[in-house]
Amino acid sequence: MTAFDAAKEYQHWLDQPHLPAEMREELKSLTNEAEIRDRFGADLDFGTGGLRGVMGAGLNRMNIYTVRRATAGLALHLQAQGEDAVKAGVAIGYDCRHHSQLFAEIAACTLAAYGIRAYVAPLLCPTPELSWAVRHLGAAAGIMITASHNPPKYNGYKVYNRHGGQLLEDDAHDIKARMATFADIFQVPSLARDEALAKGLLQSIPTTVRAEYLETVVRELRDPRLTDERKQLSIVYTPLHGTGNVPVREALRLAGYEQVALVSPQVEPNGDFPTVKSPNPEEGEALSLGCQLADDVGADLVMGTDPDADRVGIAARDKSGKLQLLTGNQVGALLVDYMCGRLQAGEQNSQPPIVFKTIVTSDFGRAIAQAHGVTVEETLTGFKYIGDRITAYEADGSYRLLVGYEESYGYLLSPIVRDKDAVQGCLAIAEMTAYHKSRGETLFDVLERLYEQWGWYGEKLVNVELSGGDGVERMKRALAALREQPLQVEGLRLIAIEDYLSGERRFVADGKIERLTLPTSDVQKFLFAGGHWAAIRPSGTEPKMKMYVGVRGNSAGDRDDTLSRIVETLRRRVAD
C-alpha cells in the first residue's frame, strides 16, 4: 500500500467537477477523521488476488476510479506483451453484488481507451465460466468482478491470465507497478460507452459460450457407470442469492437429474444476501434453509454454492438418516477416492493422472490417491497455484488432472477451466452420491470405510484476530517467535519445520536442511511423527492469522484428542 496525505486527498476528491452526485454526498457526510484516514490515507492494495475491499468513495475503497486505475495497469501490462495480446482482448464477468455490472462496464471502457477489445458477459457469470470464456475466446486476460463470499458491503476485482488462471506474483507486481504511474486517479483514460461500442471495442460474450461450457462440463464429468440411478437421487440446491442458480441447475438437468428442489428464498440474485449471515458455504448456517427443505422432501443431498459459484458446501445423510455437513477436506478425499475408482473401472487416458492439493489441505486424499498409484503434488495455498501447475503439465504432456482441491471447499475435476469450479463440483458430487447410493452406501458410509482403511484424519482451521492498534505488530512478533522457538506439543515428536519464507525444510534430529521447491510465502509448517502437522500464516495486512492443523489418529477419539492438543498449544503460543 502507498501512504497518502489523507486530508489532501479527501479535498482533491471533493474538488472533482465530474464526481457522481451520490459519491459527493457520501464524501460530504464524512466527519470522522479516522474514517477519512482509512479511506484516503492509503490506496486499495492490488495483490495476486487483484482488488477486494469495501465499496465507497476513497482511494482505499472499491469504486469506479479504483477499478479504472487497476484496469489501466492491466492494459499497460498487455501492451507490453505485444500486439497479439492487445488484439486478443479481455473477457469480463461479474456476479450479483452491488455495482458489479457497473464495474465490469467501467473496466471495459478503460480497456477501450487503450485500444483493447473487451468481451463482457451478457448476464451474471460464475467465476469458472469466466475462466472458461478466457480460454474459449482466446483472450489475453480476464477480469471477474466479485468479492466471493465476503459480506454485502464488499466487492472485488480478480485478474486472469490467458490460460484462464488467476495471476501469479510476477504479473500482479507488474500491474501494480503500472498502476502506480497514475499519480492522479482521476486522470486515467476511459472511453464513453457509446464510443467504445461504435469502435467495436465493447462487445458481449456470445450466449453460446455458456451453453458450450455446460455441455463440456457434463461431457467431462458424467459417470458412464450410471444410467437410471440419477433419477433416484433427490437433491436440494441453493445458490445463496448468487450466480450458480442457472448454470448448476442446467448442468444437473443435462446430466439426467430430475429431482432437484430449490431453496426458493435464496434463488434470486441479491447482493444483500438477506437470508444468511454470510454467503459462505464453509459456514453451516448458510446451508440451514437447504437442510430444512431436504428434511421436508426427504432429499439425499444438499448443495450450496457461494455468490460467484466457485466453491460448494454439502450436507449428506449419515447412517441414522440425519443430515450432516461435510468439510472441504472430507469432500476432497471422497472425490479423490471416487475418481480413482473411475480410473479402475476403465476410464483411461494416454497421460498419467495427477491429484493437486495445497500444503494446508488434509493428507487424507494423498493417502487414497497414492494407494491407487496416482501421483500427488502440493502447492501453496490458493487455487492459482494449482491452475498454474495444470497449465505446465498440459504444455509438456506429462500429467493430466484427476482432482485438484483445497480445504476451503474448492474443487476442480476437469482442466477445461483453471480455477475452482462449483458447477463441476456440484455435478461431480451428485454423480459420486448417486454411484454410492446405487451400491447401498451413503457418503458417510464411504467416509467411515476410508477412515478405517487409511486412518482417522481430522483437520481444523482457526482464525486468530489480534485486535487493537498494535495488532499487526503483535502478529509479526508471534510469527517471529515461532521461527526462533518452534512449536512443541506435549506427547508429540517434532520431526521437521518447513519455512516457506526462507524456502527451507529443517529436520530437528540432525539439523539437516533441504530446499523447498515452492515459491516464497510467509508460511510455517510443523511436521510431527505419526502424520500430524500444524501450519500458520498471516492474513495480509489485517491483524489476523490463519492456523491450520491436520492429524491422523488410530480412532475417532484419538484423532479428536490430538487435534485439540495441537490447536490449544498453537493458540497459547500465538497469544503469548
From TrEMBL:
Cofactor(s) for this UniProt protein: Mg(2+)
Protein's pathway: Glycolipid metabolism; diglucosyl-diacylglycerol biosynthesis; Lipid metabolism
Reaction(s) this enzyme catalyzes, per UniProt: alpha-D-glucose 1-phosphate = alpha-D-glucose 6-phosphate
Pfam family, one: PGM_PMM_I
Keywords, sorted A to Z: Carbohydrate metabolism, Glucose metabolism, Isomerase, Magnesium, Metal-binding, Phosphoprotein
Alphabetized InterPro entries for the sequence: A-D-PHexomutase_a/b/a-I, A-D-PHexomutase_a/b/a-I/II/III, A-D-PHexomutase_a/b/a-II, A-D-PHexomutase_a/b/a-III, A-D-PHexomutase_C, A-D-PHexomutase_C_sf, A-D-PHexomutase_CS, Alpha-D-phosphohexomutase_SF
Coiled coil: none
Domain Alpha-D-phosphohexomutase C-terminal: 461-552
Entries under SUPFAM superfamilies matching the protein: Phosphoglucomutase, C-terminal domain, Phosphoglucomutase, first 3 domains
Keyword Lipoprotein: no
GO biological process, one term: glucose metabolic process
Highest taxon, organism lineage: Bacteria
Similarity annotation: Belongs to the phosphohexose mutase family.
Protein name: Phosphoglucomutase
Source species: Alicyclobacillus sacchari
